[in-house]
Amino acid sequence: MTKTKSSDRHRRLLPLPKMETLWDRSKEWGKDQFDKGKRHLQEAAGLGAKPNVVPPGEVDIRCEPRVVEIGWHPVAGLAGKWFAEQTGLGKQITERIHKYPDPTQHWGVLVGGYVHQLWMDEDLDVIYINEVLQHDQWHTFPVGKTRFNDEALRQAGEMTIHEMREKRAAYHLIENNCQNFASNLLRKIQIGHHREFATALAVYNNAFSASQLKTLFEQHPDDDPEQRPDGPPEGTVGLAEKVMDEQTTQLDKHGN
Fold first, then answer.
1. 30 and 78 share a domain?
2. How many C-beta atoms surround the C-beta of residue 63 within 10 A?
3. Nearest-10 Cα torsion for 129, 132, 133, 134
């Protein structure tokens, strides 16, 4: 009799492994659906790499000076909501930071017909993107001039993000944001800094021959002070950082 009860109890326990397997599969299915939903939301918010729109060409840093502007526009709708939530805005509110930039106010560097800017991939790491400039969508401020052509600007943008990612790949509201990118890019492309850029670009690309590198330095107009265009008294980067600080909405730790 005891043996029969034991056998019955054993038979009743047999289906449990199947139930556990079903539960595990359900959890796996739920996680898969969550990941798919997250990816769809990220795609809808516009995260991820975008096609390069700058036409291919040779790097030229001896062009006629062109106006450099910094500009901002709101990251509206779903993208703005995603940006604010995923960059830790709620967490930042609870930290001991009295003022910090609104992550839904996005800055870029504007030259000619293109915008050069920092964005995020699906893992919320910083990436470089460019787009055709639609001037009426940006609040713009001239901050200086550059002799870089569009391809040189594109490569300067790629190099700027590469350097930022080496220090910290993930987007950060304070230390790794679109304003940091704009300042770092302007340091490379501003008038009078062609030699530093040429050297850094050669190291970054590791593809220039000695003769190609030499042409980046030879007969540069800015080597002659009389040919160098005037810039703002505080310098391009100094003016840009002042403008961004003044024009960016600052949120306090209470969210006001």
1. no
2. 14
3. -120
State the residue for tokens 């990816």: 39
Sheet holding 139-146, edge to edge: 126-132, 114-120, 105-111, 66-74, 139-146
- Range in 76-85, 91-100, 102-111, 113-122 with the lowest mean pLDDT: 91-100
Residue 166 lies in a domain: yes
C-alpha distances (whole Å) from 90 to each of 84, 85, 95, 214 are: 8, 7, 9, 50
Total-model pTM: 0.66
Structural domain containing residue 166: 66-252
Query: Whole-angstrom Cα distance, residue 174 to residue 255?
Result: 15
pLDDT at residue 146 greater than cutoff 80: yes
Find tokens 């009295």 and name the residue.
98
Do residue 115 and residue 154 come from a single domain? yes
Q: Write the pLDDT tens digit of every residue in 40-91.
A: 545 555 678 899 999 999 988 888 999 999 998 877 544 555 555 555 544 4
Question: Do the beta carbons of residue 208 and residue 202 sit within 8 Å?
Answer: yes
Instruction: Pinpoint the alpha helices (H) of the chain.
Output: 2-13, 16-44, 77-86, 89-94, 150-167, 178-189, 194-205, 210-217, 236-247
CA dihedral 249, 251, 255, 256 (to 10 degrees): -60
